[in-house]
Amino acid sequence: xxxxxxxxxxxxxxxxxxxxxxxxxxxxxxxxxxxxxxxxxxxxxxxxxxxxxxxxxxxxxxxxxxxxxxxxxxxxxxxxxxxxxxxxxxxxxxxxxxxxxxxxxxxxxxxxxxxxxxxxxxxxxxxxxxxxxxxxxxxxxxxxxxxxxxxxxxxxxxxxxxxxxxxxxxxxxxxxxxxxxxxxxxxxxxxxxxxxxxxxxxxxxxxxxxxxxxxxxxxxxxxxxxxxxxxxxxxxxxxxxxxxxxxxxxxxxxxxxxxxxxxxxxxxxxxxxxxxxxxxxxxxxxxxxxxxxxxxxxxxxxxxxxxxxxxxxxxxxxxxxxxxxxxxxxxxxxxxxxxxxxxxxxxxxxxxxxxxxxx
Length: 359
Description:
single chain, 359 residues, alpha+beta, eight-stranded antiparallel sheet, five-stranded antiparallel sheet, 26% strand, elongated, transmembrane helix, membrane, Phosphodiester glycosidase family protein, transmembrane, glycosidase
């Protein structure tokens, strides 16, 4: 449908007529609008001061509260620090007590085995070792016990006579030359020409001096491993001994005790000789070492101790394993620079191996 111009004008007037009527009426009436005074209240200077004072009071109150909070927090921190320090002190005491108690069983055990030996006539104590010397008075012989606690790997070693294979020297000479505090004779030997060689398998500084020799007859190997523990017994192969990680050791006959049990003594060694000066090496369950050296007038079998008597001593003293070292005129015990035992030869014998102890 098409609208004419007149029609459009008429339609616009009809739509706008109400608004135009209101406009003309408002103009003719000359109306004015007045708002109440309290719509925009007046703020006086006094009110501003009141508002400022109120704000100051609130700020002061907030600061006082913050101060009290800070003081309370400081007191709380102080109490926490005091509690922390007290806890640390208590824990330190507990740790010290626990440390002391942890060593108590070892102290009790050492006291017990020492009591069996009697009273030490001499003691050497250092960071490396504790060595105690005791006297033995038996019915048929006199002797000496040397109990040694090794604290470091430097405390003990085995040396060759004059530090050379085939050479020999007295234990006293070896002690002085190496500046040791004590020394005991070690393994057996065999002479060849003008040389004196260690018997069978011998280890020094972790190395085989003259190769490995499988156990034969009643021979054994005894020494210390890398953990400074006594090792010993019969070894049929080098691999078997290598598994023990020997640091040093020597050979002789026979084994006297294993795991607290006295071992059968071969008939030959019961009578050849029956009595003699003896040297024995043994250990305790805490790895302390025990050396027994007995006196005898000679090697003809009439003086000194029997091997069965040495077994009795090992049992009485609470030893775990025990091995007979070279005896007779070879028995040598040096302590604090002097010869303790009475060598049956009238003087110390020149030997190819020696156990030495260092402060």
